[in-house]
UniProtKB/TrEMBL annotation:
Subcellular location field: Cell membrane
Biological source species: Trogon melanurus
Main localization (coarse): membrane
Cellular component GO terms, alphabetical: external side of plasma membrane
UniProt entry keywords in alphabetical sequence: Adaptive immunity, Cell membrane, Disulfide bond, Glycoprotein, Immunity, Immunoglobulin domain, Lipoprotein, Membrane, Palmitate, Signal, Transmembrane, Transmembrane helix
Domain Ig-like as annotated: residue spans: 18-120
Name used for this protein in its record: CD8A protein
Gene Ontology process terms (BP): cell surface receptor signaling pathway; cytotoxic T cell differentiation; T cell mediated immunity
PANTHER family assigned to the protein according to its UniProt record, in alphabetical order: CD8 ALPHA CHAIN (PTHR10441), T-CELL SURFACE GLYCOPROTEIN CD8 ALPHA CHAIN (PTHR10441:SF2)
Transmembrane helix is among the record's keywords: yes
Membrane topology of the entry: Single-pass type I membrane protein
Length: 139
């Protein structure tokens, strides 16, 4: 019986906490097509964000490499309209949409001002989840 509190703790952790059974709350940003190489000037760049949950909003953010400044690009909500920088409903530079738990961002014509690390993030049950950055720079 001396080990029962430890066993009870392990059982409680196994029932309550994601990650114990191989489930992980991950958010992953990546190029939409695995064959995508570094972008070329004027090329369409497609990124996708794979989340661990459906019907939640996702933000796309770009971080400049040198200055480390973060730029909001778009918020893609679960049910209402997508919102771009400046509270706009459309963008001349970007497209964004979702399907299930996958959220896409397209840079319509990649230029030097678009270079940086792209992140998607979401807020789920008062926890903020960031994807690892997806670098997009000219070669």
């Amino acid at each position: 019986m001396a080990g029962s509190p430890a066993l009870l703790l392990l059982l409680a952790l196994g029932l309550c906490c994601p990650g114990i059974h191989g489930q992980r709350n991950e958010v992953i940003a990546r190029f939409r097509h695995s064959s995508t190489k570094p972008p070329q000037l004027g090329q369409r760049l497609e990124l996708e964000c794979d989340t661990f949950v459906e019907n939640i909003g996702v933000y796309w953010v770009r971080q400049e490499d040198k200055a480390g400044i973060q730029h909001f690009i778009v918020y893609i909500p679960a049910y209402i309209r997508t919102t771009y920088e400046g509270k706009k409903q459309t963008s001349t530079r970007f497209e964004a949409w979702k399907n299930g738990r996958i959220y896409w961002l397209v840079v319509k014509s990649f230029s030097s001002q678009d270079e940086g690390n792209y992140f998607c993030l979401l807020n789920s049950y008062r926890m903020l989840y960031f994807s690892p950055g997806q670098p997009a720079f000219f070669p």
